[in-house]
Please model this.
Amino acid sequence: MIYAGACYQSYFRDAVRDDDLLQLQSKQNALKYLREAVERSDGEVTDEMLMTIALLAIHGSVRQHHPRFTTPLYRDNEFYSSLRFDQTHLHALRSLVRQKGGLAELKLHGLSNIISMIDTFQSLMNLSKPELESLYSVESLVEQLQETWDNVARTRFAIQKDGFDFLDGYEGGSQLRQVICRIRILLETYALSLRKPRQVPDLMVAVHTRRSLQHAVLKLEPGEDCLHESARLATIIFLAELGWTLPVVGGFQARATKLLLDALNKCTHDQHWETHPEFLCWATVMGGLAARQTVRVQDFAAILRHGPVPWTKDSWIQVKALSLKFLPFEHELTGPCHTFWDNACDLHATEGMD
Model:
């Protein structure tokens, strides 16, 4: 725990020699105590060992940085998104948890939740499949959310248009569509919390639901068709950005935008803009959101020339409206998505003048 605290502290301030020394000594002590515990264990893996390995895995490489955020939630997200996990400890952690019978067998308070977060978060950063089971049943969590709904929430959800019906034509498409439906339930619950803060369930139910949905969509196989794959990747990005935007560190955006850009270019080549223009417009804006502050944002902007909406800043209202058929550009996503659209229009105007 001292090592983890030292890593966190050194990230958010100009590290002095004493900080570096504390970080080094605390890591050496953690490794020493872990080795001693293993030698005394007679092959039995304790929860305390797993906690130590988890902390060592998370804080594999901490680089001094100049953080851009001051709000605690954003600062924490920036810190953990920037860490390079120690792959040796991560592999050991996953293997030992499976050896013990899974997350449900861990008794130390909070440990199963920590390891579940590590597994899902690291899979998100690398766009790989989670190796451990989901800690919570997403079906049960979604039911808890819907139990709090009022008539307004039920009516809004019932009349939503679904632009993802084309997914049923692909292998695995119905599973992706089910995940998307559950994301909409989470979004409707959030909208309810803004209207009636006292009526919604505990915040942690929503947090666990989001992570369980991330786990579920990451478990899905990549789509063999570019439309299916565009939907899968754009949904992963939406869940990653939902609630607050991920700082552009950690490599997630670079990986996700590259894959999504490839899929969208294939859709353009296959002339899918003629048959699925609104979906592709939505997916392109999601890509532009994730590509913010990078040169790749220009690539997503260029794709929009094929879109169904006039390429002007005044058309943002239409773009936001069509997103309601998919996953909406609402709440915290409104600003970043709107910014991308405006930037794309500026780029288009500049090219036109050239």
Remarks:
- The chain has 16 helices and no strands.
- The mean pLDDT is 86.
- The longest helix spans residues 17-40.
- The radius of gyration is 22 Å.
